[in-house]
Write a structure and sequence with these properties.
Helix content is 65%, strand content 0%. The protein is mainly α. It starts with a helix and ends in a 6-residue tail after the last helix. The model has no long low-confidence stretch (mean pLDDT 92). Pfam families: HDOD.
Length: 285
């Protein structure tokens, strides 16, 4: 078995081979974060990219957003806001980038992986509503939930033999993925996912929400705590990620710390299967 440092080097080399996010998406993110830019500026950039335009329009007019009538891109920017459009572009680009890869490990269930990821995004957004987060920011939380486990996919694609052993270890020991990955490989998907997020120049809050989603007490931040809780709730509701065989895990005081009720959140997610089905549009854009 290679050393942890050798494994990290191999993973870094694999990450180097993953394409950067499309230039248009990077420009949209840059403009959305610039207080001097306008909706008109973002609209102009998106419309220069027919593929991105088609993806964003498909998402906006899907059942997931539940718009009463079909809307155009200019209408969407006005109705949904700059931040939502930015996060739609980002999430569609990330899923498009990673969703086209096929893992060659029989025990790695990609369907389960994406259902858990979409469920975590939906749960994160649900928690936001309870926290009365600014509606313009809710899609940032959805993106964080959606991509929190991407490192698992990177590991499965770049080191299938080691990941297969980690999956076997998790099943035989009734462990969750992060525990078995640390035990077998010496690094877990949260660290690998944060490395990918840094390569893509995602903002610090998103990077931290990936890196610390199993141990949010080490890096205080509402986004990280929300992703931690979303991951737990979705697992508890029957959508564990592939390779998770232990009980759902939550930090002590997580719900109390944000003045939330676990039961109330679970009740709010009663329609999770239907919501996940609607969100599969993200996998098809």
């Amino acid at each position: 078995m290679p050393s942890t440092e050798e494994i990290k080097k191999r993973l870094a080399d694999s990450l180097d081979k993953i394409p950067s996010l499309p230039t248009t998406v990077g420009k949209v993110i840059q403009l959305a974060n610039d207080i001097n830019s306008s909706a008109k500026d973002i609209l102009a950039v998106i419309q220069l990219d027919p593929v991105l335009t088609a993806k964003v329009l498909k998402l906006i007019n899907s059942a997931f957003y539940g718009m009463p009538n079909k809307i155009s891109l200019p209408q969407a920017v006005v109705l949904l806001g700059i931040n939502t459009i930015k996060n739609l572009a980002l999430s569609s680009a990330i899923v498009g980038q990673m969703g086209q890869n096929t893992v060659k490990i029989k025990t790695f269930d990609q369907d389960m992986f994406w259902k858990h990821s979409l469920g975590a995004g939906i749960a994160a957004k649900t928690i936001c509503k309870k926290l009365k987060v600014d509606p313009k920011m809710m899609d940032e939380y959805f993106v964080a939930g959606l991509i929190h486990d991407l490192g698992k996919l990177v590991m499965a694609l770049s080191m299938p033999m080691f990941m297969a052993k980690a999956l076997q270890c998790a099943e035989s020991g009734k462990l969750n993925g992060a525990e078995s990955e640390q035990k077998v490989i010496g690094i877990d998907h949260s660290e690998v996912g944060s490395m990918l997020a840094q390569k893509w120049s995602l903002n610090e809050a998103l990077v931290n929400s990936i890196l610390y989603h199993h141990r949010p007490q080490e890096k205080e931040g509402q986004l990280t705590w929300v992703v931690h809780m979303a991951n737990y709730l979705v697992h508890k509701l029957g959508y564990p990620n592939t390779g998770d065989f232990g009980d759902p895990q939550i930090c002590n005081g997580a719900f109390a710390g944000l003045n939330l009720s676990e039961k109330e959140l679970l009740d709010s997610l009663a329609n999770l299967p239907e919501e996940i089905e609607k969100a599969t549009v993200f996998l098809k854009t």
